[in-house]
């Protein structure tokens, strides 16, 4: 399953510090049994999307959030407490893929909320996701459970530019800002 965290960070003076902290935190997260991959992304055209940042994690199950190890590294928002006033986020868990592939430097994530099956675009295959749970507490984390359905695709920067995908309503385009941690 995929754990998706969509975020905005409202303090430009601390954004570099926050991004550095988050990179370190990803390494800690993938050290946990059951949390297999983690990678972060930033919107290519932030002014056109609701959420500027995206983090995608591959999980075996929600049990990882119940673990003592997760709480010990500050899971559930404790580790990011010093940034809380600047963070808004939405978290969800999706079925439809077990392990998210690495997105390279020239790769792009195409993330649809309003088109749960994606869009009919040449050479781009969207994978539909179904929420694995509704709104609930998962150990030290809160799962928002929204949206219930969405679609995701991986493309590349040249295709995004050629098709002008950042201008497509209902489609968020993200570029990687970290490597995939395993």
How would you describe this structure to a colleague?
It is a single chain. The protein has 182 residues and is α+β, with helices and mostly antiparallel strands. It has a single domain (2-176), classed as 2-Layer Sandwich (Alpha-Beta Plaits), CATH 3.30.70.100. Helices cover 14% and strands 35% of the residues. The chain is built from three helices and ten strands. It has helices at 15-29, 68-72, 157-162, and strands spanning 2-9, 35-43, 53-59, 87-95, 107-112, 127-131, 136-138, 141-143, 149-156, 171-176. The strands form two sheets. Strands 1-3-2-10-5-9-6-4 form an eight-stranded antiparallel β-barrel. The relative contact order is 0.24.
**If you consult CATH, what is the topology?**
Alpha-Beta Plaits
| Protein structure class | alpha+beta
Counted up, domains total 1
CATH class: Alpha Beta
H/E topology pattern: EHEEHEEEEEEHE
Average pLDDT rating:
91
Q: DSSP strand (E) fraction?
A: 35-45%
Overall outline:
globular
How much helical structure, as a percent, in the residues?
10-25%
N- and C-termini, Cα separation:
15 Å
Instruction: List the uncertain runs.
Output: none
Radius of gyration: 16 Å
Sketch the major β-sheet.
8 strands, antiparallel, barrel
Strand order of the largest sheet: 1-3-2-10-5-9-6-4
Q: How many beta-strand segments?
A: 10
Helix and strand arrangement:
Layout: E1 2-9, H1 15-29, E2 35-43, E3 53-59, H2 68-72, E4 87-95, E5 107-112, E6 127-131, E7 136-138, E8 141-143, E9 149-156, H3 157-162, E10 171-176
Antiparallel strand pairs: 1-3, 1-4, 2-3, 2-10, 4-6, 5-9, 5-10, 6-9, 7-8
């Amino acid at each position: 399953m995929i754990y998706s965290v969509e975020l905005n960070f409202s303090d430009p003076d601390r954004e570099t510090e926050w991004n550095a902290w988050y990179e370190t935190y990803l390494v800690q997260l993938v050290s946990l049994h059951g949390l297999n991959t983690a990678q972060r992304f930033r919107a290519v055209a932030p002014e056109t999307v609701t959420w500027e940042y995206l983090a995608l994690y591959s999980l075996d199950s929600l049990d990882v959030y119940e673990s003592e190890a997760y709480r010990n590294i500050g899971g559930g928002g404790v580790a990011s407490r010093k940034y809380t006033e600047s963070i808004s986020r939405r978290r969800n868990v999706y079925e439809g893929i077990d392990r998210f592939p690495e997105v390279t430097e020239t790769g792009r994530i195409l993330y649809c909320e309003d088109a749960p099956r994606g869009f009919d675009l040449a050479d781009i295959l969207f994978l539909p996701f179904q929420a694995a749970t509704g709104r609930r507490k998962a150990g030290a984390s809160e799962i928002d459970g929204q949206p219930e359905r969405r679609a995701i695709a991986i493309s590349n920067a040249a295709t995004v530019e050629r098709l002008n995908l950042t201008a497509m309503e209902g489609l968020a385009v993200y570029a990687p800002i970290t490597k995939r941690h395993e």
